[in-house]
Amino acid sequence: MEASSINFLSLVQCMCEALHQRGDVERLASFLWSLPPSELLRGNESVLRARAVVAFHRGSYHELYAILESHSFHPRWHSDLQSLWFKAHYREAEKIRGRPLGAVDKYRLRKKYPLPKTIWDGEETVYCFKERSRNALKECYARNRYPTPDEKRALAKRTGLTLTQVSNWAACSGQS
User: Fold this and answer.
1) Where's the DNA-binding part (predicted)?
2) DSSP readout, 10-25?
3) CA of 169: how far to CAs of 104, 125, 138, in Å?
C-alpha cells in the first residue's frame, strides 16, 4: 500500500472516530457521503461502524443489520454494536405496535433476533456474567467455600471480573 493511501485511510479513520465520539451524526453522514467508493475503505472497521451509527439514526435498520452481519468486528466494539442491534429491533417493533415496549416484549425480541456472530463471542451472559466466568466461580467455590482475599483477587483476574463481583457472587450464592 502506498504512503498516500495509508495517510488517506488514517485521516478517514480519524475523522470517523472524532465525529462519532462527538455524536455529530449529521456531519458524520455528510463526511461518509463525500468519500470516494474505494475498496480501501469498504472493509474499514471505523468506516463500517460510522455507517452503522448513521443508518441507525436515520432509521435505516435493514442497512444497519446488513453492515453488522457483513463484517467481524473487533470485540472492543461489540457492546456498542450490540446495543445498536437491539435498539433498532425495539424501535421497529414500537413503530409497528404503536406503543412503547415492555420488558417482556424486549426479551422476546432479543430471543427472536439473536446477535450475529460478527458482534458477539457466542458466549451466553446470565445475570451479567459470561458462562465461562460463572463456571470458574462455581469450580473455585466448590473446592474452597471460604477463599482468602488473595484467592478472590486471583479469581477476579482469571475471570475478568472485579473483586467486588467475585465477592458479591459468593455472598449472593450463600457460600461465604
Assistant:
1) 131-170
2) HHHHHHHHHHHHHT-H
3) 26, 15, 10
Helices marked H in the chain — which ranges?
A: 3-22, 25-34, 39-42, 45-58, 61-70, 78-97, 103-112, 131-143, 149-159, 163-172
Phi, psi of 23 (to 5 degrees): 75, 20
Q: And the C-alpha cell for 176?
A: 461465604
Counting residues of the chain whose pLDDT is more than 90, the rounded percentage is: 58
Task: Cell numbers for 63, please give them.
Answer: 442497512
CB contact set of 100 (below 8 Å; sequence gap of 6+): 94
Most confident among 84-93, 121-130, 144-153 (mean pLDDT)? 84-93
Say if CB 68 and CB 118 are below 8 A apart: yes
| 126 bridge partner residues | 129
Amino acid at position 108, single letter: R
Report whether 93 contacts 101 (CB < 8 A). Answer: yes
Bridge partners (DSSP) listed for residue 130:
125
Euclidean distance between CA atoms 147 and 79, whole angstroms: 32
